[in-house]
Amino acid sequence: MTIVSQTELIAGTLAGKIVSFPTDTVPALAVKPELARQIFTLKQRSATKPLILMGASLAELLPYITGTEAELVLWQQVAQKFWPGALTLILPASNRVAREMNPTDPNTIGIRVPNLAVARAILHQTGPLATTSANLSGQAPLVKMSAIEMAFPDVLVFDEQELNQQEQISSGLPSTVAKWTGTGWQILRQGSIKIDMAEQDY
Predict the structure, then answer these.
(1) Please, what are the domains in the chain?
(2) How far apart are CA 158 and CA 174, in angstroms?
(3) Could you tell me which of 80, 174, 192, 193 has the fewest CB atoms within 10 Å of its CB?
(4) Are the C-beta atoms of residues 63 and 92 closer than 8 Å to each other?
(5) What angle do CA 164, 168, 170 make, to 5 degrees?
(6) Are 19 and 158 in contact, with CB atoms under 8 Å apart?
(7) CB-hemisphere CA count at 13 Å for 141?
(8) Whole-structure pTM value
(9) Cα 40 to Cα 16: distance, rounded to the nearest angstrom
């Protein structure tokens, strides 16, 4: 039985285990960033597909990115507009990012703050985590915690019964992914947030 309480899930994460919890998009598989290789192995995921660093707040993620003063101001404006929310920003990585997060391009990192209170509460206790959708590579993301428990019996899975009934459950849609090119934004994936970064006045 791998369905666990929020307290048990946090303890398991800190002990180095892979865990799964709901977010505002699809449920995440998550692990401490320096142990990210475990997720690549579990999902049979190509090293060319980096993981996302998910945090409880913009402030907790800022140490993991690096840029000019002007860039940092611009990036924070975007983050403050869309976070918490379903927007992943791919930015230049600082030397604090574990290479295992993005083995083939360690100079960039995707970051996000989820718009689900329980996910942020977990992340606040664990610190930023390496995350990805809960599925084998090439298959559709699993959206029910019970399905994740069956597919990944060694993963600690959050007990959905602990969810606040008022909370918005995972939408089932992936996040929108925007990459900073050095001069502007490139949309790599249009997800649940429909935006054209090129038209935004940032």
Answers:
(1) 3-199 (3.90.870.10)
(2) 19
(3) 80
(4) no
(5) 110
(6) yes
(7) 19
(8) 0.93
(9) 15
What are the pLDDT digits (tens) for 90-107?
A: 999 999 999 999 999 899
Helix ranges restricted to H, the chain: 6-14, 37-43, 58-61, 69-82, 117-126, 145-151
Report the C-alpha gap between 184 and 91 in whole angstroms. Answer: 11
Residues in the chain: 202
For residue 142, the one-letter residue type is L
- The dihedral of CA 38, 41, 42, 46: what is its sign? positive
AA identity, residue 92: P
Task: Give me the percent of the chain exceeding a pLDDT of 90.
Answer: 79
Q: Is there a contact between 109 and 101 (Cβ–Cβ < 8 Å)?
A: yes
Q: Which of 168, 160, 156, 121 is nearest to 144 (CA)?
A: 160
